[in-house]
Amino acid sequence: MTTMKFNYITAKWAACLFSLTMVVSACNDMDFLEEVPKDFLAPQNAYNTVEGINQGITGLHFTVRNDWYFGEELQDVGTIYKALGTDIAFHGEDPNSTRFLCNYVNYLTPSSEYVREYWNRPYRLIQRVNLLVEGINNADESLLTPEERNAYIAEALFFRAYAYRHLVSFFGDVPVVTEAIDFAKTDFVRDPTSVAYQQMEEDLSFAVEHLPDPGSEKDPGRITKGAAYHLLTEVYLMQHKYTEAVTAATHVINDFGYHLMTERFGSNPDVFGSGDVYSDLFAYGNQNLGENKESIWVLQFEPSTVIGGSNNRWNRAFAPAYFRMGNTPDGKPAFRGELVNGAYTGYSDSLGRGVAWVRPTNFSAYTIWEGNWNNDIRNAKHMIKRDFYYDSPESAFHGQKIDFSKYPASAGRDAIRDTCQYIYPYFIKFADPMHVLDNEATSGNGASYKDVYAMRLAETYLFRAEAYIGLGELDLAKEDINAVRTRSHAKPATTADIDIDYLLDERARELYGEDCRHFVLRRTGKLVERVRKYNNNPLNPGLNIQDYHVLWPIPQEQMDLNIDQQWTQNPGY
Fold first, then answer.
1. Total Cβ atoms within 10 A of residue 560
2. Among the four residues 31, 170, 178, 268, which has the most C-beta atoms within 10 Å?
3. Which of the residue ranges 15-29, 189-203, 228-242, 320-334 would you say has the lowest mean pLDDT?
């Protein structure tokens, strides 16, 4: 096992506490040259107080939130992580773009800056974990009790496992780094995936022993035993350790007081005039409520204040750019929008300001709902908005449903833009209706302060169902899938229905845009098959995916920096 810091760290990190630059020294024996920080923060003194350790833990949460959950305008990285390039979504704003994984062959190259980000971001998180663990271990004994020390280390190690699960899924063999090192290293070895899996299991085994039970965490969003067991379940599934996966998932389902929400909860009104328990799960403010027993790990977002804040861009990413569609069939502006400071904006605060980065495929928008169209509450009109209406008082079409077939030929409509960018089925779980807190004139610019699920109990049930399928226990898999379907008023599955494709369909119905679909399709061996079958990007059906695209290329930059140990590029690149 490699216990050295990967060369990305020494080559790229800025000199600050959370950028964690390491000093590159050619004279390690010259101790008199070592700088001992006393009046500024540095890795050597950042974690010698409880406040500093808590700040380090906060930094890990911040990193995950910003890197993968749209804490900033990540565009390609965040949208691919959640949906693009799979069977459930393609880039709607420009389906022929050179970005957003519209074409696997052209996009996944060793020199791609986005491929590089998928490598760098997990390693950045790993380095921060390793440095924090080192600091906690070196903290004075009077600072923490043994139990407190172990709890902090456990939360940090959860994030290291989180990062390695990402790296192994996308790249296969990768260097396993368990210590922070402050010198340049250019002879890293790509460890077999078995080494990474062993490290993930060790980290999460420590975590489930020392993390607090759900409900005992210090703050909303902190990591608990439930989250660690949930992630451990996924790590077992990646290795096809199905018996172990069942055991880990059962801990989550049975031991901590979680349950699927089946009754209405929360205090928020139904913006669209109807609602149900599934819509309550995604209503503003309901994710952290004590009565919400389905939340396992929730990413925290806060409105801007004088000391900062955070927002996610899921409304911007997933919503159609309806306001761009131009005129009504009789030539009037199609959308008046909200009145702000005496002017109409063109945007609706119930729909937000989307830019169509993530457009659902016909499979996820239509096919998977066949047979349950009117009864499955996840397909209700207030959960998937399919009908859009003109907001144009000067037009004879005001208030009518938008129908592009009613435009005269002289209007020169573009069918691709009309149905991929302007109007398409919109999964309202990503909206934040009536909570525009910044820049009202642009409907918040598509930003939201609504908290976001990173882990939800419905997924744990589907994890366990996946494990049961792997074990050939189809009746037990059916029971877990039906636990999710019953809550949604969908027709119960029969044992004859159950196979891995049915499980993947159910995950799409329940978890669209919540999980990393790439992880799921890779570990089930279905990535290439289902992208070719279901991704209906109109300008590139199947996204030109090739068999070798199951793994991404190692960034060429990393291969070039590792000058003393030659690496073999992943096949096909």
1. 11
2. 170
3. 15-29
Average pLDDT estimate for 410-419: 96
3-state SS of 89-102 is EECCCCCCCCCCCC
The highest-confidence range among 3-12, 247-256, 434-443, by mean pLDDT, is 247-256
Other beta carbons within 10 angstroms of residue 510's beta carbon come to: 22
In which element (H, E) is residue 452 found? Answer: strand 452-456
Structure tokens at 361: 């495929």
For 213-258, write each residue's pLDDT tens digit.
Answer: 999 999 999 999 999 999 999 999 999 999 999 999 999 999 999 9
**314, 71 contact by CB (below 8 A):** no
Distance, CA of 310 to chain centre: 16
Structure tokens at 5: 């810091």
Q: How confident is the model at residue 19 (pLDDT cuts 50, 70, 90)?
A: very low
- DSSP conformation class of 429: G
Radius of gyration of the chain (CA): 24
What secondary structure letter does DSSP report for 360?
E
Distance between first and last Cα of the chain: 26
The residue type at 388: F
Q: What pLDDT sits at residue 39? A: 57
Q: Are 299 and 353 in contact (CB under 8 A)?
A: no
Please, are residues 525 and 84 in contact by the beta-carbon 8 Å criterion? no
In the block, tokens 């070798």 appear at: 548
* Phi, psi (degrees; rounded to nearest 5) at 185: -140, 130
Reduce the secondary structure of 254-315 to three states and give it as a string.
Answer: HHCCCCCCCCCCCCCCCCCCCCCHHHHHCCCCCCCCCCCCCEEEEECCCCCECCECCCECHH
Provide the percentage of residues in the chain whose pLDDT is more than 70. 91
Local confidence band at 34 (pLDDT 50, 70, 90 cut-offs): low
Distance CA 360, CA 332 (A): 29
Buried b (16+ CB within 10 A) or exposed e, 5-41: bbbbbbeebeeebbebbbeeeeeeeeeeeeeeeeeee
Let me know: does 200 contact 235? Beta carbons within 8 Å.
yes
- Specify whether the CB–CB gap between 501 and 527 falls below 8 A: no
The residue type of 354 is G
Check whether 203 has a pLDDT greater than 50: yes
Closest CA to 465 of 255, 246, 285, 290: 246
Contacts of 413 (CB under 8 A, 6+ apart): 404, 407
Q: Indicate whether 173 pLDDT > 60.
A: yes
Whether pTM > 0.90 for this model: the answer is yes
d(CA 72, CA 310): 8
Helix (H) or strand (E) holding 318: helix 314-318
Q: What size, in residues, is the chain?
A: 573
